[in-house]
Specification:
The structure is a homodimer of 502-residue chains.
Chain A: H1 10-13, H2 19-24, E1 31-34, H3 45-55, E2 62-65, H4 75-80, E3 84-88, H5 96-104, E4 108-109, H6 114-122, E5 131-139, E6 145-147, H7 154-160, E7 163-169, E8 215-221, H8 235-253, E9 264-266, H9 270-280, E10 287-290, E11 293-294, H10 296-303, E12 307-312, E13 314-315, H11 319-327, H12 329-333, E14 336-338, H13 341-344, H14 347-353, E15 356-360, E16 363-365, E17 370-371, E18 374-375, E19 379-380, H15 387-393, E20 396-400, E21 404-405, E22 410-411, E23 413-414, E24 429-432, E25 435-438, H16 444-455, H17 458-474, H18 483-486, H19 488-496
Parallel strand pairs in A: 1-2, 1-5, 2-3, 3-4, 5-7, 7-8, 9-15, 10-12, 11-13, 12-14, 15-20, 16-23, 20-24
Antiparallel strand pairs in A: 5-6, 16-17, 18-19, 21-22, 24-25
Helix pairs in contact in A: 6-7, 8-9, 9-10, 14-15, 16-17
Chain lengths: 502, 502
Amino acid sequence: MLTAKQLRNPELFKKVVDADVAASFIQDGFTVGISGFTPSGYPKAVTLALAEQVKNGRKVKINITSGASVGPEVEEALAAAGAVARRYPYYASAHKSMKKAINSGEIQYYDMHLSHTAQQINFDFLDPIDVCIVECCAITEDGNLILTPGVGNTPVMVKKAKHVIVELNTFQPPELEGMHDIYIQNIPPHRTAIPINDAADRIGTPYVECGLDKIKYIVETDIPDKVVNLKEPDEKSLLIAGHLIDFLKSEVKAARLPENLLPLQSGVGSIANAVLKGFVNSDFKNLTMYSEILQDSVFDLIDAEKIKIASGCAFTPSPNVLKRFKANPEKYKKHLILRPLDITNHPEIIRRLGVIAMNTAIEIDIYGNENSTHVMGTHMMNGIGGSGDFMRNAYLSIFCTTSTAKEDQVSRIVPMCTHIDSTEHDTQIVVTEWGCADLRGLAPRERSRKIINTCAHPKFRDQLMDYVLRAEKEVGGHQPHILKEALSWHIHAQKYGTMIFQ
Amino acid sequence: MLTAKQLRNPELFKKVVDADVAASFIQDGFTVGISGFTPSGYPKAVTLALAEQVKNGRKVKINITSGASVGPEVEEALAAAGAVARRYPYYASAHKSMKKAINSGEIQYYDMHLSHTAQQINFDFLDPIDVCIVECCAITEDGNLILTPGVGNTPVMVKKAKHVIVELNTFQPPELEGMHDIYIQNIPPHRTAIPINDAADRIGTPYVECGLDKIKYIVETDIPDKVVNLKEPDEKSLLIAGHLIDFLKSEVKAARLPENLLPLQSGVGSIANAVLKGFVNSDFKNLTMYSEILQDSVFDLIDAEKIKIASGCAFTPSPNVLKRFKANPEKYKKHLILRPLDITNHPEIIRRLGVIAMNTAIEIDIYGNENSTHVMGTHMMNGIGGSGDFMRNAYLSIFCTTSTAKEDQVSRIVPMCTHIDSTEHDTQIVVTEWGCADLRGLAPRERSRKIINTCAHPKFRDQLMDYVLRAEKEVGGHQPHILKEALSWHIHAQKYGTMIFQ
């Protein structure tokens, strides 16, 4: 049963219904806003109920907008039921039915820079939101929403939505209250500076403004976020982390970085996790993070007293780490701020603070162009997410990747990327398990040699240099390419499973 | 003879030398900062003298950094003399020797987002500047510099340079004084918000801080900026301008833009010129510009009382327009602000003001990826310049291009771009002489149809749709491509001069 601490206005109790009732409110053709970010702070009960209704014959196809892809109770359940027409702004490959439908074109997926979504909703560039489903810890007396660990685009979606359905999740720690810092920018011509000058600055409210009238239904649930425990870093990830930390040390030595660096941003996944764990064991102190998502490693950095403040739009504690948080919330709370996604990823703030951005690439070409989304140029692995926001605006933009995939048969350093998300203009540093290539100030012909000799797997270096030399000789130009060979490595891999030409 | 109005401290007269003496100060291996931006406000006498010295046997090869490419007295003279080792951050194809040397790899050219250059110089990421040559109207009593019509990256380059050589150009109108608004951002972690909330806001000083000690030499000159009179817009450019203005009107009608729009940014060239001229003849009033470069059409907008304020990092009046300015400087001055390039192109301000960005593409692919730099993926036509800064951060990002080149033998709408400068994530609107495609919120399979049916030349539409349909059927994926055909249109054009397959 919900309590007066969770629903702080007696009127709210009248809105409590079963998930099934709330799901019935969602009509065919609705655009539905979904709270949360990655498997953190997203609705579960209502979307599961809706999926069930559709499986049982209700005809509903909706557009879903959110902060990023969220958990299986949304992505897998609704996509498997065939209940999704359109999806944006992000998708990650964890959800099989969503992946299949996006790559078959059954679901129209619009891949966006995550800093753009909230403002494009606010500008009325995207579909009007009929209903926004928001996971909350509590609702205030005035009907404002205390979110759970994922903020994402919820504040703007709630503002623009005609109706709001709240999932009051009793499994989420109530101590999350006070961690959020909610701020919505005006739209032009009424915008002013965002007053964040330090990753620790708080500029907003601890709740999302909503109001009693907009809340249509409230559904009680206790389903946990589906975060999995991360594996320990593998050998290659540790090598990458080592090269990267050595590079940052050399930048401090050259007086191009302060001793406690500048605010760190780190993407998701095993390499990112290894890099942040690398800081736990380093000599760096008083670090700060101004990142999109905060994963388990942030808690290790707090425990190791390495970090002053970590700002993100969500944190995704795995079950083990959630236990640590619940056992001692005050310890962690003072080091964490949860902001809206358009503020964590805002070019204005990333550039002002001088963020050190570290993200993972699928492949990088010899001139520094990068693919972070499409395998073989066609099949979406995951959206661009915030990597473009951070890499374009960072003080230092660092792409990390292993040099190969598919048991060394596929090189991630290629003549030409099959899809480009961050261009040569945005890539400063490339790190693989073989080393760290500093591309700052280099022309394309210098970059190709630096990337190949430092970052490519040795078994592909000759083949890459052979391409470079022939392209320079046979075609020339500022970025020499032999067009009929530029994508041949990928074509060969599609056909024979390897980029090694015999 | 220079006057006390031009050199406002008697000490300065002792530094006046011939161009030849100043040029002799520049040593082999120097990194030389060059004032100005496009053919506006750049040094001429000293660089011509240096080129002459090199032609006569002096061994000097220098690195040149600047705001953008400038006039022939730098680009052509020094490149033809073989005096350039490295060049950044921009190059445009007007200068044959520079073009040849960049595309042969003889000159190492580093193509940058123009908002990045000043800060990377300030961060010590690029070569330390040995000497900066600055064209001025006057030098103040304290040794501060009153620039001519091009600001570019001069403020930061002067700050970081070991020495400064001033070219005091008596041909430039002294009334330029007071038009500049010079502001240098701190470097992280000491940065704060840039206090511009309106295109008209002035936040800095009318001069570049330098100081008497840093000024090594002063050279008198009266060589005019090499700006050519622009041609009248051709038929296709007028059609593009018409579609674009109709689109903006429909956005006003839909209440997604205010009646006086939002600040305009426009690239350079004949299409950009036609678009701005289109505003002269439109019903729009009280317009503002927050742009990189201000060309002749801005003066027409002022004469037509269409524009309140135009902010840019340079203005490039053609000889005819310069006469208008000289005849009535006060009339134009109150509508013009000249800022540093990193402020005109700053993501923070572009996004805050909600700039409407209009730039020209070389080619655009069926999914909205764009090439603005490399012909056939290899040969540099011109650098990316500010287009990436504006298109990524704009309220509306609009690419304009004719649908074809080479007498309709080459389609500018292609299956896959051979080089990508702005990705699908940054392209909202595409306009050709055939129409305006609004891509906001669309998935790739929707975008391909919209772009082909609205923007491609009718003679290429079937061939494009044939590719799209086969790619969807044979390969599938989120962005279907047949890799072995994706670049075949370009390969065919290289071989046969046409993209029409028979």
